[in-house]
């Protein structure tokens, strides 16, 4: 599953409503669907005062994917 390119805007809206993302997952999801890389996400979140390491971002992405699979 490629979060960056695979889903339409209505599908992304549905995931936001139904997946019960944590605040961190939601921040990562919102940037990932805007086609941002892990490094770009790390830099943008640091600017928003929500610093995360690349490994944490990758864990959040895995968690996001598990939640999406559950509702599909």
* Distance between the first and last residues' Cα: 12 Å
Kindly provide the radius of gyration, computed on alpha-carbon positions and rounded to a whole number of angstroms.
11 Å
SS content category = mainly alpha
How many β-strand stretches?
A: 0
Number of helices: 4
Helical content stands at 55-70%
Number of domain units: 1
Could you state the order of secondary-structure elements as H and E? HHHH
Give the biggest sheet.
Answer: none
Strand proportion: under 5%
Shape: globular
Let me know the average pLDDT. 95
Protein model, in words:
This protein is an all-alpha fold and 72 residues long. The chain has one domain (9-71). It is built from four helices and no strands. α2 crosses α4 (54-71). The longest helix has 18 residues, at 54-71. The chain is globular. It starts with 8 loop residues before the first helix and ends with a helix. 15% of the residues are buried.
